[in-house]
């Protein structure tokens, strides 16, 4: 009887672990939403242009994300009323969210073209779309990305 | 996807000879990824085009320009190209060039820069099912042939036989609930899907699904029309929709979400707690997990009662086997008689190492 109880407990614990939803997918979804909020409050005129990675390959993801996170520091709020929202979204987007790993990327951040803040954020959003799509569970095991 | 140079094409075609000039210019190359399984890029129909077309494509940073492997034909004219899954790469700039040649002259029609994740058209939802829930509620569920459900958003279109126009309701998951039911109406439901903003920037909706019907059709006449045939096999339960209820559907979905994220974890924690309690009560297992420290105090109860608490206990010297220190509670201080006799028993025990025991014994 006691063996059965111990077994039930172990089984239960393992099944809880397995059925937990992927935290990665939720993370990218949340970041996508945050970038959309930032697009609404960022200043787009008379501002410095930022290096914008465009469709980085799989071997350049960490470099591209670091480039985006550094570029975000140079953004400015549209007016003083949106300061709070701006500061909150920048803080969320500056947090590291990719695991640190060895990456040999041929393109550095400075090699990418400089663009306006809205296009910069659109590209960042697109990178989040790619990461989210890659991390969602597939039913049939196919992938075209 | 309109070609930016489409306005230049008629001018260029005029100089190219009779066969090209006779046919209107292709409107531009339009590419669609069907359910991410294959893609077709088309530039017109056999009725309007008469030249010899060929398509070349390439991805940015992956330069070999490749010709289409599988053309689509209409009345012996090439009108499009079909790409298989292995030829499709998303999140990479994609370029297409269509060459129109006639009588030895060639015209190049370039296309826009495209990103294929923005051109995905999912397949229509299938298996639309209506479930009769408690409290006169109705729930519509479906499934999608597209492999990643988290990338989709859906729209449910419904109408009763008494309504004049369709009502559209956006839905994020694969469940749609109506809070109440009216037994007098007969309803039709359609669902379609689109890639949501988390996976792409598209406006390409899928086709509408096969409809599902619900309700009592016996009183409807004339206004029902071809899209609402009777389906007597379906159980009868009808729903009324009012604008207030439509707003309530979003709340309904929120409730369902909270049930999944709060109620189920709490229930599982309670179950775990019950299992732990059962385990604790199983003394055989408990003794293995938490071994007891032996406490020989019970052995001296009789002595205490006999001598009214006034006695001393000493460890005898013939004990020579080396014992571990926690197995040897050695009373080195005398028992103190309690003031109230046998009501409370105070004993001071001091645990010592085997070497100390030997030293004190000798």
From TrEMBL, chain A:
GO terms for cellular component: extracellular space. InterPro entries: 4_helix_cytokine-like_core, IL-15/IL-21_fam. Keywords: Cytokine, Disulfide bond, Secreted, Signal. It comes from the Eukaryota. One of its GO terms (molecular function) is interleukin-2 receptor binding. Transmembrane segments: none annotated. It is found in: Secreted. Its main location: secreted. Residues 1-19 form the signal peptide. One of its GO terms (biological process) is immune response. Belongs to the IL-15/IL-21 family. Cytokine with immunoregulatory activity. May promote the transition between innate and adaptive immunity. Induces the production of IgG(1) and IgG(3) in B-cells. Implicated in the generation and maintenance of T follicular helper (Tfh) cells and the formation of germinal-centers. Together with IL6, control the early generation of Tfh cells and are critical for an effective antibody response to acute viral infection. May play a role in proliferation and maturation of natural killer (NK) cells in synergy with IL15. This is Interleukin. The gene is IL21.
TrEMBL record, chain B:
GO terms for molecular function: cytokine receptor activity. One of its GO terms (cellular component) is external side of plasma membrane. GO terms for biological process: cytokine-mediated signaling pathway. Residues 1-21 form the signal peptide. Gene3D superfamilies: Immunoglobulins. PROSITE patterns: FN3 (PS50853), HEMATOPO_REC_S_F1 (PS01355). Residues 124-222 form the Fibronectin type-III domain. Its main location: membrane. The chain crosses the membrane at residues 256-280. The keyword Manganese does not apply. SUPFAM superfamilies: Fibronectin type III. Keywords: Disulfide bond, Glycoprotein, Membrane, Receptor, Signal, Transmembrane, Transmembrane helix. It is a single-pass type I membrane protein. InterPro entries: CRLF2-like_D2 (IPR048648), FN3_dom (IPR003961), FN3_sf (IPR036116), Hempt_rcpt_S_F1_CS (IPR003531), Ig-like_fold (IPR013783), TSLPR_D1 (IPR053856). It is found in: Membrane. PANTHER family: CYTOKINE RECEPTOR, INTERLEUKIN 2 RECEPTOR SUBUNIT GAMMA. Belongs to the type I cytokine receptor family. Type 5 subfamily. This is Interleukin 2 receptor subunit gamma. The lineage of its organism: Eukaryota, Metazoa, Chordata, Craniata, Vertebrata. The gene is IL2RG.
